């Protein structure tokens, strides 16, 4: 168990009787109490106002209105470079993200959506044929499976099966987050990625917040302290969590605000890679070839690492191993760092906790966070 957790329930590594109750409460909340997005009681699971690439907006418009109306995620979770990939969506709900991704991976790729809520799965499965016909596919490239995100093996998902796993504001709902990360690591191929949006807190939450049914259902009561995520990811075997976006959450409900006291929350997207052990972690100069759809001129890999098409960038050993050992390998050329030449511009300074924190400056200055900021991330 990660050393961050003196009590297993504090960072979501425990389950037991409390976990059983959480599953029942979440099923009831998302299966019976919530019927549409507007039924949510806070802003925690509402998408931030941030720019979405045109090709993703186009794909979203193709999704049936009943599917989108039952969407409870906290922003679209769509990583780059997906053509031909096998993708797993943990907590797929009504299937919105699955049907968006179905268009991006193409007919040769495949999307599996996993959810434990029968009512949500019924909506998702109802529209498989509708979407396949709309996309012009001869055979479905989407399927949905009932199961728990902590127990993928029980749902029939084998190890080394997926190129990418996504999850959209769901892991916080699990009473055993360590098991979620372990199972994700198991079913990912070497070089695979867990790309997920979730809610994080500025400290470990008190018991009265963690055990409140509505706060848990609204993605607040189960939020991890962001430092616990870093330690759990390391314990499982993932590389350094890389922060993609973050924005401060305004609750928008006076009753719930009074319950959380001085706890503060952010919605953040991280990417975690299962870095192949065979990939050497040596500094490299890399050149992005600009061939990823929608990111031809520039690829924003994380908040601290942006690649310009055709430009040489020097990266640290872990980034080099990620790029070389993942689906991004064909999108870059690699060369050794030439010490006799002037240092090239590095896109990725050394990792520090400041760069990993989803809300440096947010915790003490929430009013300064602009939801319409072009990057939606404030570090400072």
TrEMBL record:
GO molecular function, one term: arsenite methyltransferase activity
Enzyme Commission number: 2.1.1.137
Gene Ontology cellular component annotations, sorted alphabetically: cytosol
Catalytic activity: arsenic triglutathione + 3 [thioredoxin]-dithiol + 3 S-adenosyl-L-methionine = trimethylarsine + 3 [thioredoxin]-disulfide + 3 glutathione + 3 S-adenosyl-L-homocysteine + 3 H(+); arsenic triglutathione + 2 [thioredoxin]-dithiol + 2 S-adenosyl-L-methionine + H2O = dimethylarsinous acid + 2 [thioredoxin]-disulfide + 3 glutathione + 2 S-adenosyl-L-homocysteine + 2 H(+); arsenic triglutathione + [thioredoxin]-dithiol + S-adenosyl-L-methionine + 2 H2O = methylarsonous acid + [thioredoxin]-disulfide + 3 glutathione + S-adenosyl-L-homocysteine + H(+)
The Methyltransferase domain, residue ranges: 83-235
Record InterPro entries: Arsenite_MeTrfase-like, Methyltranfer_dom, SAM-dependent_MTases_sf
Top-level EC class as recorded in UniProt: transferase
CDD domains cross-referenced by the UniProt entry: AdoMet_MTases
One GO BP annotation of this record: arsonoacetate metabolic process
PANTHER family in UniProt: ARSENITE METHYLTRANSFERASE
Similarity annotation: Belongs to the methyltransferase superfamily. Arsenite methyltransferase family.
Protein name as it appears in the record: Arsenite methyltransferase
Organism: Lepisosteus oculatus (Spotted gar)
